[in-house]
Structures are given as structure tokens and as C-alpha cells.
Specification:
The protein is mostly helical and 319 residues long. Helices cover 66% and strands 0% of the residues. The protein has one domain. Helix 4 packs antiparallel against helix 5, helix 4 packs parallel to helix 10 and helix 7 crosses helix 10. The structure holds zinc ion (2 copies). The site of one zinc ion (ZN) has 5 residues, from helix 11. Its main location: membrane.
Length: 319
């Protein structure tokens, strides 16, 4: 049995190309100076032994837990009729069948297209000089500016890649699938052709690899925090809801669901992910501006009509 497990480990090591097990990587580590989170990090790598597997499993679990975990609150909100007044397209509410259909395709894509890539994630990170199993973690100030850079890079990459995908044959054969839902919902964020997931995923992971290639100063934990924020952004942008507390009502250049919901409704314009500046400066948000201005005017008119009716009823009561 032991011989079998040993040969399995050897096969894994030859496949992953990472022959250094965790107990050697941490051989001279003084854990007494580490924070609790850093100690947990070390324990995780020690538990799996092989760093490639440890990074792969963590990356995969992180994606699944955050993507589906973030979609659950939106499913609950969809089931609450009292929330309809915040829905951007209130006439379209996803059914359970829609949600199940999305879940199936997303899971299929995660287990077929993504899993093999995750296998090679650790070696690629090391190739670019990213720190992975290492502790201590970088300072939070460094993490903040690096993540801010990733947001700006991803937004620019996504704008151009997404806009290109609306070009005839690319739209017909690849991007059309993502546009199946005219009124999107949280789980539909990754409802897309595997090629699209691959290309647009480059915007998410390309920033960290580029920064790493130039500075050799990036920890994988920073990348994980960035990926979590990016997943939140993607699921929320597809939620179909705009609340008074929604981020774009506080940060005017944040795109949010209001921006991306229009893209699904109109098929054209509003191509970016996190920010509004590319669409604004290149004029691809003109249709969006027109539609939203019209909706605002209609709302104001309806409110004025209500007030008129109320004033008329008061007048009748007095007479
Ligand atoms: Zn599109
Ligand atoms: Zn979308």
C-alpha cells in the first residue's frame, strides 16, 4: 500500500514538475512569528504536501464557493416579490429552470475547461516569479495598490475583448450564448462559451502575471483577494437589481448592474466591466444614457400624476 502511495506521489510530482514537498519548503520556518492566518496558510500547504495540488485545490474551491455563494443571495431576492421594484427589467424574473440550466453549464465548464488549467496554475505562477506557499503575507497597502491596478487593467482588457466579441462571426459562434438572457441574473455571469471564458479570463489573470513579470513582487494571496472581488463584481453586475445602496449610486464611475443589465437588454454598448470611463469617452454608452434619461422622465411624470391625483382627492374632500 505504501509503495503504491509512493509511486502515486512520484507520478504526481513528475506530472506537476514540482518535486519539492511542503515539509522541505518549510524546513527552516519559525512559525512562532507568524499571524494566525499565516499559520493556517502553512498548514494548508503542509496538509497537501505537494504545493501544486495545494494551490490547485485552493484555487478551484475558491472559485466554486465564491461564485455560487455570491449567487445565492440573488436567488433569494429573485424569489421575493417585494424586491421587484428594484429590478431593472421587472417583467423578466428567472425561473428555477433558468437557474438550474445556468448552474449545469457553468459546472460543466468548470470541471472540463477550468480544472486542467488549474493543474498548471502553480507552475505558471512560479514561472512568472509569484510567491505562493511563502509566508509572511505582503502588507495590506501593497495589496490595495496592486488590486487597484488589476481592476484598471481588467476593465480595459474586457472593454476591447468584449467589444471585439460583438463583431459578426465572433458574436454568432461565441458570444451569442452569453446573450441568451436578455435580463441577466447572478448565476448567468459565467453562462458563456468556454472560449469566451478563456479569453475574458485573461483579463482577470493577465494583470497579475504582467505585474509579476515586471516587478517579481506579488503574492498569490493578493491574486486570490482580487479574484474574489472580481467574482463579486461579475455576479453582482448580472444580478439585474439596482438598489439605492448599490455601489454605482455612491461611486459614479462604478459600472454595476445598472450598466451591464442595459448591455444585455440592448445587445450593444456598455462593454466594460467595473468602470464607466471607456464607454463614456468612446461614446459606446449613448444609447444607455438616452434610455435611462427616458426612464427617469417617465418615473418623474408618474410621480407628478400621483401627486395631482392626491391633490384632487383632497380638494373633493374639502368641498
Ligand atoms: Zn456582450
Ligand atoms: Zn453579461
Amino acid at each position: 500500500m505504501e509503495a503504491l502511495s509512493q509511486s502515486f506521489n512520484q507520478t504526481l510530482e513528475s506530472l506537476t514538475g514540482h518535486p519539492t514537498p511542503a515539509h522541505i519548503l518549510y524546513a527552516n520556518l519559525d512559525t512562532s512569528k507568524l499571524t494566525y492566518a499565516e499559520q493556517l496558510w502553512v498548514q494548508w500547504y503542509q496538509y497537501w504536501g505537494n504545493p501544486v495540488i495545494a494551490t490547485g485545490v485552493m484555487s478551484f474551491l475558491l472559485h466554486e464557493i465564491v461564485y455560487f455563494g455570491r449567487s445565492i443571495p440573488w436567488m433569494i431576492i429573485d424569489a421575493m416579490p417585494s424586491m421587484r421594484k428594484y429590478k431593472l427589467q421587472p417583467n423578466y424574473v428567472p425561473t428555477l429552470a433558468d437557474q438550474w440550466r445556468c448552474t449545469r453549464l457553468v459546472l460543466l465548464s468548470h470541471f472540463t475547461v477550468e480544472l486542467p488549467q488549474i493543474w498548471s496554475f502553480h507552475p505558471i505562477c512560479e514561472y512568472f516569479g509569484m510567491t505562493t506557499h511563502e509566508v509572511p503575507f505582503p502588507s495590506w497597502t501593497k495589496m490595495v495598490w496592486q488590486i487597484a491596478l488589476f481592476f484598471v487593467f481588467e476593465d480595459a482588457f474586457h472593454y476591447w475583448a468584449h467589444r471585439t466579441m460583438h463583431f459578426g462571426p465572433l458574436y454568432k459562434h461565441i458570444h451569442k450564448l452569453h446573450h441568451e438572457y436578455v435580463a441577466p441574473f447572478g448565476l448567468a455571469a459565467e453562462y458563456a462559451h468556454p472560449l469566451e471564458v478563456l479569453v475574458l479570463g485573461m483579463g482577470t489573470i493577465g494583470g497579475p502575471f504582467l505585474l509579476c513579470a515586471f516587478t517579481k513582487d506579488l503574492h498569490i494571496l493578493t491574486v486570490y483577494i482580487w479574484v474574489i472581488l472580481r467574482l463579486f463584481q461579475a455576479v453582482d453586475a448580472h444580478s439585474g437589481y439596482d438598489f439605492p445602496i448599490s455601489l454605482h449610486n455612491w461611486i459614479p464611475f462604478w459600472a454595476g448592474a445598472d450598466h451591464h443589465d442595459y448591455h444585455h437588454m440592448a445587445f450593444l454598448g456598455c462593454y466594460s466591466t467595473s468602470f464607466r470611463w471607456w464607454d463614456h469617452f468612446l461614446g459606446t454608452d449613448r444609447g444607455y444614457q438616452r434610455v435611462r434619461a427616458k426612464q427617469k422622465a417617465q418615473k418623474l411624470r408618474a410621480e407628478a400624476d400621483e401627486l395631482d391625483k392626491y391633490a384632487a382627492s383632497l380638494k373633493i374632500q374639502r368641498e
